[in-house]
Write a structure and sequence with these properties.
By secondary structure, the protein is mostly beta strands. The protein contains three helices and 24 strands.
């Protein structure tokens, strides 16, 4: 599925998007001492290790980003690489993926076991035994400090875009996670994970679910490597990060509302309208090619996706000239 996802994503061009707006220092031309201005590419703080019952702080000062001249445009770009966090050769170490976050993160004081639990949860998708209620509020506050705040944003974008190269070692993957927030709560989400090499700078455009939703901030996290098992030989180059603002051709109050489920889907995607009026559903691949059309007289309908290859598709719903777009995942 990931090979297909790569081929679809890198061909999803601006033909289906609108004007692009650069993120703050998304060209990575401006740098401070060791990090690009406006971005966090480091873990700086203390990991607390239990030594004979006492919590002993182990300083962490790890940088994942390097300024390089191999750029898509301009003079420089960001190269991300995994790094070992801890004391190599002991139980107190772990390989972290190279991480870049939009915004400036603070320091932290986190028990080692908390980090290990988090890594297990992220890498294995198993939350068994991980209960935030088990942690002291000050620890949770420190965890929150590890995350950069992102940047201000009034409306969830249509997509987040960037130019990347990727040289994986071992079984490493690269990933992008972006989400918009309103009053601290996520309201829109975009993500992609790829494990194939990308030898030349390639344009990625990752659509947001719930595009157009009002928000107050936008968080962007770019990762090179896999939590816990990242290979130090992996590298990723990132340049010219932009967003495509949400735009509509009609008044937002007139935009049609539809509910689509299940998502991900295997056999059918069901579409339920809020308004009983005829509508048309179109399934398109990420190159914009029309794969099928389903007409409805206004009732709930089902769109057959059973013969589609695993990957990401766009479901375009047109109700009397008013259009809604939904990202769907087929597995």
């Amino acid at each position: 599925m990931k090979k297909l996802l790569l081929s679809l994503t890198i061909l999803f061009t601006v033909s289906v998007l609108t004007a692009q707006v650069p993120l703050y220092n998304g060209s990575f031309e401006n740098w401070g001492a060791q990090q690009p201005n406006g971005w966090t590419t480091a873990l700086v703080g203390n990991v607390l290790i239990d030594v004979f019952g006492a919590q002993v702080p182990m300083p962490v000062n790890t940088f994942f980003g390097t300024q390089v001249s191999d750029a898509h445009a301009g003079s420089t770009a960001l190269q991300l690489h995994p790094a070992n966090v801890g004391v190599p050769g002991t139980q107190y170490n772990i390989n972290f993926p190279g991480i870049a976050q939009l915004g400036v993160a603070g320091g932290f004081n986190i028990p080692l076991q908390t980090i290990l639990d988090l890594v297990d949860m992220i890498s294995g998708g198993d939350t068994t035994g991980f209960d935030p209620g088990d942690f002291d509020p000050s620890v949770l506050a420190s965890l929150a400090q590890v995350l950069a705040p992102g940047d201000s944003c009034s409306r969830t974008p249509q997509s987040i875009n960037m130019w990347v190269k990727f040289s994986p070692a071992g079984d490493d993957e690269m990933g992008v996670i972006a989400y918009s927030k309103s009053n601290g709560q996520p309201v829109g989400y975009a993500e992609i994970t790829l494990d194939e090499p990308i030898n030349e700078y390639t344009y990625l455009s990752i659509p947001f679910e719930e595009a157009g939703t009002p928000c107050d901030s936008l968080v962007v996290i770019i990762m090179a490597g896999t939590f816990g098992t990242a290979d130090l030989g992996t590298a990723m180059w990132v340049d010219d990060v932009t967003i495509s603002p949400y735009q509509v051709g009609v008044e937002e109050s007139d935009a049609p509302q539809f509910h689509t489920y299940p998502n991900p889907a295997t056999d059918y995607v069901r579409v339920a309208p809020d308004v009983f009026e005829p509508y048309t559903c179109q399934v398109l691949d990420l190159q914009g090619r029309l794969l099928r059309v389903v007409e409805s007289n206004g009732e709930q309908c089902s769109v057959d996706v059973s013969d589609l290859a695993s990957g990401i598709y766009m479901l375009k719903i047109d109700q009397k000239g008013r259009v809604a777009n939904h990202k769907i995942v087929v597995r």
